[in-house]
Design a protein that fits this description.
This protein is mainly β. 13% of the residues lie in helices and 38% in strands. Helix 4 runs antiparallel to helix 9, helix 6 packs antiparallel against helix 8 and helix 7 crosses helix 10. The longest helix has 25 residues.
Length: 877
């Protein structure tokens, strides 16, 4: 439904809609003029990628002031206020046939004037086409839609395919195919970096189209069009001879030979005498047929090349690295396609957004599925049997997307989705507490298995070759999880409860029709094994063989980081190192120091006086791994061990005077809150113990420790009462609140909570023992933690949901008064790979001027997938 008004703009009618939202005609009630308003949909506004594109368009348009470029008047929330341009588009004008030569040249001159002004500002349009050019009733050309424009260097934000045939195949830098196929320069169609010469190519194509009334490059599919752009030489026989030299210079396939400035095209146009369009037959269908034949030929060559370059029967091992500025999500799962030719994996792009990426094994590049925005921990990625779709778990939905791109489709609202299987004939298995059969077209899922014997869940089904039976993980405590065999033809209560294997994570199945053998791949600790499976007895036979060592797994949610195709291709991740370097950053995000040596840090807290840092350091040489607190002198870089308990010592907080540390020590019987003097004098003192205590975050100036107990924020008095006890006081009534910090003056407490449906930052009065009144939502785009108050109480800083460090100005008053969040800099993307709350990997000095972050020391394993081809042959040796 269209809004009635936006700010002081009254909506009068809808003009249209496209990739980035709807466009409305409106009245500016202050100035009494008509305007056009581009309104980003509310669900798009929650998408940082789309909003980045919206913001970029506003910034680009605001920098351009030219009579041949539609002007921008302002921005209101998610609305772009623009000049209302009446008239038809150049595309609509061309539908009526060729434009008279003199009129076409006049339009060409105006287009060149507008482009020249944009290029002088360092702006490349990148989607120049007749549909983005308006002709006013007075004959003035207006260039529209700089939403894909690039300014000042490589373009690094992602877009979508919402407005076909606009095309997106990758998101950043090299590897991008972005724009409209028929008007793309060859280098743009190949996904290479582009500059203003790409606009000059599109300019030449548009002039051809104006003079002939037909497209220069056409075809039945986008692939056909791109093939003709890349391979075919433009046929200029249909345009007047006087403009052919200019068009040839605009349409050079090699950008080095192309006109370097659109102003040069103007000079050539001025030299062209008036003439009638050259006669000739329309070649649209001929070009389309040639393009189609060429595409078929290229496909045949590609297939032949692929067959010719198939690896030999010997086992081939190699590492597949990620593109620049791309990093795995926290769990970084991946899946090999059934034909073994493509890998899908979960990763952050340069824009910081997590998506599913596709990497063909016969290509050197990977590209994201733009609309496949995922959480930081997608619970699974699977392929359809024909390799056309990717299925994945996102939040509480089972979704799928075409591997060539397009919108995400919801398959089922299963809660939660812990793995899924995609069988032949569209059979889908998902998970709730047990395995369920999901109708491909939606609807109610049918239970297939039933929990028994104290099981907590059934998860990660995988089909066996007969398409009827499947393997699945039967959830019990780690160390006792088993793999069972399910049968689609059996009732839930009639399923076999026999276990064929004990393992803590899911399994993979690989079936070779050539050898009529089925193998099950599974993990024991960090070793990946394969064992033969008998389809008659439905049991494992023979002995397992080792495929790989040091393979990554996660006990919760029982994921093993490996995947196998039926064609003999195996993909897995190996365990990386966990060393991190303490790094100082200033408020501009610039590195200004690196105290100490890299160590296996997992949390950092800077002392109030700024001289020391308490860090949690994990010793993985012990089993189970032992976590202890160390003190780092931030001037000398020297580290001193502070705790020596065999349990897990973590979550340190400093006393306001920097002389004491309190921390949480976790044992089998529960958690204890301890404190000890930083100088090492005296012994540690137990302040509190509880099996339900967690998330110790702050030590207030008025003598409270802030922690979470049973999912509620409490204040624990540091000083015992007359009976020697310390009784926690609940200070936040919202269940599920955590990570709370109190302002230095003791008036306010800020905390994270998911009560709105996503993690947001709230502030309310801090009044232990009294019912607080009032609560304010501070964040506008979610939060990832690190809420810190400045020492003078006038600033609150945190990491927002888009991964930016933002600051909020606080005004002293009876009620909490604050400004809108203002971005300082982007939180380092390297830290998003390790945690959903990257704020725990950073702290800030009390003046909010310097940030201490634990930057990972990157080793290859953190940015690589290991690939093994013909792995079955290794089992025979």
């Amino acid at each position: 439904m269209a809004p009635e008004s936006i700010a002081h703009y009254r909506i009068s009618s809808k003009l249209g809609e496209g990739a980035m939202g709807e466009v409305y005609r409106a009245i500016d009630s202050k100035l009494g003029r008509e305007v056009a308003i581009k309104l980003i949909p509310e669900d798009f506004a929650k998408d940082a990628t789309r909003m980045a594109r919206f913001t970029r368009e506003a910034q680009v348009l605001a920098s351009l002031n030219h009579p041949n470029i539609a002007a921008i008047y302002g921005v209101e929330d998610r609305a772009l206020i623009m000049e209302l341009v009446e008239g038809e588009t150049l595309a609509e004008r061309i539908k009526n046939g060729p434009i008279p030569f003199d009129e076409a040249l006049e339009f060409a001159r105006q287009i060149a004037d507008g482009l020249s002004a944009a290029h002088d500002k360092g702006v490349v349009h990148r989607d120049l086409k007749p549909a983005n050019i308006k002709i006013t009733p007075g004959g003035t050309i207006k260039l529209l839609d700089f939403g894909l424009a690039k300014a000042d260097g490589p373009w690094t934000s992602a877009t979508s395919i919402d407005d076909a045939p606009t095309l997106t195949v990758a998101s950043t830098g090299q590897g991008v195919i972005l724009g409209t196929a028929a008007y793309m320069a060859p280098e743009q169609a190949r996904g290479r970096n582009v500059d203003k010469r790409a606009d000059i190519w599109a300019y030449g194509v548009i002039i051809y189209e104006m003079l002939t009334g037909s497209q220069m490059f056409a075809g039945d599919t986008v692939t056909d069009v791109l093939a003709s752009v890349v391979r075919l030489d433009p046929d200029l026989a249909r345009v007047p001879a006087s403009v052919r030299p200019m068009l040839r210079r605009c349409l050079e396939k090699d950008p080095k030979k192309r006109l370097r400035d659109v102003g040069d095209a103007l000079l050539l146009l001025d030299a062209a005498p008036a003439a009638a369009a050259a006669p000739g037959k329309r070649l649209t269908w001929a070009l389309a047929g040639l393009a189609a034949l060429l595409a078929i030929g290229l496909a045949a060559l590609s297939y032949a090349h692929f067959r010719a370059t198939q690896p030999p029967a010997d086992v081939v091992r190699f590492q597949m690295g990620l593109p620049d500025k791309v990093s795995f999500t926290q769990n970084g799962i991946s899946a090999i396609s059934p034909d073994g030719r493509k890998i899908a994996f979960a990763a952050y792009g340069a824009d910081g957004m997590p998506r599913i990426w596709i990497r063909p094994l016969d290509s050197s590049t990977a590209a994201p599925l733009e609309d496949a925005l995922i959480g930081q921990q997608p619970l699974f990625i699977i392929w359809s049997p024909d390799g056309r779709y990717i299925g994945f778990g996102q939040g509480r939905k089972f979704q799928k997307i075409d591997v060539t791109g397009g919108p995400v489709q919801s398959v089922s609202d299963i809660t939660p989705v812990i793995g899924a299987a995609w069988g032949e004939r569209g059979i889908l298995l998902g998970t709730t507490t047990g395995i369920v059969n999901v109708p491909p077209s939606g609807g109610t899922a049918r239970p297939v298995t039933k929990l028994s014997g104290g099981e907590s869940s059934h998860a990660y089904p995988v089909f066996l070759p007969d398409g009827r039976h499947f393997l699945y993980l039967r959830g019990v405590p780690p160390g006792k999880r088993t793999i069972g065999v399910g049968d689609l033809d059996s009732a839930p209560e009639a399923q076999s409860t026999a276990a064929i294997l004990t393992t803590d994570t899911q399994v993979a199945v690989s079936h070779s029709s050539r050898e009529a053998s089925t193998k099950v791949l599974f993990l024991r600790d960090t070793t990946l094994l394969a064992q033969d499976f008998d389809m008659q007895s439905l049991k494992l036979i023979g002995e397992p063989a080792t495929l790989a060592e040091q393979v990554v797994s996660a006990t919760f949610p029982a994921i093993g980081y490996f995947s196998a195709s039926n064609t003999g291709t195996l993909v897995y991740r190996t365990i990386p190192g966990n060393r991190r370097q303490l790094t100082w950053l200033n408020r501009e995000g610039q590195v200004v120091g690196t105290p100490g040596e890299p160590r296996p840090y997992s949390l950092v807290k800077v002392s109030p006086d700024g001289t020391k840092a308490a860090v949690v350091q994990t010793d993985t040489r012990q089993q189970p791994a032992n976590a202890d607190i160390w003190i780092v002198d931030l001037k000398s870089g020297e580290s001193t061990r502070f705790t020596f308990d065999p349990g897990e010592d973590a979550q340190p907080v400093w006393s306001p005077d920097s002389k004491w540390l309190a921390w949480m020590s976790t044992h089998k019987e529960g958690s204890r809150i301890l404190r000890k003097a930083v100088d090492g004098s005296g012994t540690e003192e137990e302040l509190y113990s509880s099996p339900n205590a967690s998330n110790l975050t702050d030590w207030t100036r008025n003598g409270y420790l802030i922690l979470t107990i049973t999912r509620n924020v409490h204040a624990l008095p540091v000083v015992a009462d007359a009976t020697g006890k310390r009784t926690p006081i609940q200070v936040v009534e919202t269940p599920g609140a955590f990570a709370a910090y109190v302002s230095p003056d003791g008036r306010w407490i800020t905390y994270m909570s998911s009560e709105t449906g996503r993690r947001e930052l709230f502030v309310q009065p801090f009044a232990p023992g009294n019912k607080s009144t009032g609560k304010w939502l501070v964040s506008t785009m979610g939060t990832m933690g690190m809420a810190r108050w400045r020492a003078d109480n006038k600033e609150l800083m945190f990491v927002d949901g888009m991964g930016s460090i933002v600051t909020v100005n606080v005004t002293p008053a009876a009620a909490f008064q604050f400004s809108a969040p203002r971005k300082l800099f982007q939180f380092p993307l390297e830290l998003f790979e390790f945690t959903q709350n990257p704020g725990t990997f950073a702290d800030v000095t009390r003046d909010n001027e310097r940030f201490l972050m634990m930057m990972p020391v990157i080793d290859n394993a953190q940015r690589e997938l290991s690939v093994v081809m013909n792995w079955q042959n290794s089992l025979k040796k």
